[in-house]
Fold this protein.
Amino acid sequence: MQRRTFLAGSLTTLTVGALHSTTQHPTAAANAAGATVDDDFLTVLTNANQKQIPLVLGNYQNASDSIRTVARKARRLISGYVWGRSSYHHDASLLAPLQWLVEQLAARQHDDGLYDVGNLHSPPDSAFAIQDVCMLYALLDADDQPATLPHRTILEQVLRKAGPALASGGVHTPNHRWEVSAALARTHHLFPDRRYAARIDDWLDEGIDATPEGFYSERSSTYAAEVTNPCLLTIAWLRDKSELLGYVRRNLDSTLYLLEPNGEVDTTASRRQDQKGIREVWWYLTQYRELALHDRDGRFATVAKSIEQRGTGELGDFLAEVLERPELAAALPGAEPVPIDFAQHFPTQGSARIRRGDRTATVFGGTDFHDLPVISSGLSTNPTFFKLRQGAAILDSVRLSPQFFSTGHFRSDGLRRTGDRSFELADEVKVPYHLPLPKRYRRRDGLYALTPDGRFYASMDFPHRPKQFRTLRTEVTVVEVGNGFDLTFDLDGDETSYAIELCFRPGGTLAGVEALDAPGNYQLVSGTGSYTVGSDRIEFGPGSGAARVGMDPGERYTYLGGNLTPDGLRVYLTGRIPTRQVLRLRTA
């Protein structure tokens, strides 16, 4: 195993190569040889790690920690211990806590080499921890301090025990394939075993689940940033698979259009948990840095530097990666502007992103609800079809819910671009009334098949019944105007009521609206309302009347006690179907 001097922290130029191998990306050596170290970058990581270590020392014996958390805590301690620029460099006070954590890694490992992390005897969940364990072993081995020999002995035992299990076990989700493969690549590099290499090739031979636009099948920023991208880069590095870089490059390129001015990443189209939450860009730091160095891409360099300057997130976790691969600390190419003036359509996920400086918008019509009308993890079912930001003033969601047989929110069946600055969303909902069964399907015992009618199940043999339908047709056109957007709602069908919900991020001030009984709920009865944060403002209107109409999430949610009420300040506009209503959103 090649010993490296980068750990001492005194270099001004990079030593090319991997910490425990001479294998690199095909052009990594050419790009990094003799390159100047980015000391500001190293200072950011060093300081961030030094803030993490006291927190680990204060609760490293937390019995509720998962094995993944145990491994990550050990990684934070080891990063500081081996790094010559750290105030914790070779600090003996870290050794006993580290010993406890390492012993936990061994004690919690099943005889088959796997761990329980929610899922029982889980190869993919174990792989997340094993990747860290490989880094722990490699960093300590390169540092080669006699005091850490007991730690390394235990870590080696854990890795040798886990490898065969990862090489023979299965997965649950698409990203798990790449997590297991990356863990096997690291383990194989430390303790070669052709079974590991063969399993990696089996998974890779299935093909990478990415669209030409660069989105992975889960469409999730969380899993792209935390799993798929870093794992593909690891496999490319350790298994000489340079073709994998193209998938990461395309994903990072598309992500440029999802970035918000405040460092968040739009996740509306995700099929995973982050479709309903906030995601930050800091997770992408070393990915943008690596591809910026590899491709000499100034746009990627700009994103990487913006993450450093913002300083949010657990940036100290990246120190281990850079100690493992010093070429990541090379000075970045010159900064180039990232896109800030565009209307970008992503047909494969039914979304569009529009940005004009500090004003951004998302239009979304790509849920899985029409092809697979169920609510489940792994499906896109987010009913938010529009978002708008002006600086710090954030309209997190616009949603529509008709009172139509408890079928729930409007979810568009796709997104159609109708012009340079215009898009169309549409959906048709048909609800049946069931007529008597034809005589040939009738049973004297009355025990008919338990079947769905689209909203619920009953022993009615629904598929064989003739039907009378009630139909609701909804079209929403989104048109960008000078300083905002016009959303035109055309609702046609049986007479009923509807509500439009605008949910603003907490922290601002609403004006022109009336407070409702429930906390956080308001109604725009007439005129124009506004939401203001500092000097940023979003105006909305006109109001459409005082009738109160609840947002119906649909029977799929209410039957199980669920709801789809977003967090924030919710403003409602209500009306009656059939109608045409124009919602004008203006920014300042």
Remarks:
- The chain has a mean pLDDT of 94.
- The longest helix spans residues 39-59.
- The longest strand covers residues 484-504.
- The CA atoms of residues 102 and 356 lie 50 Å apart.
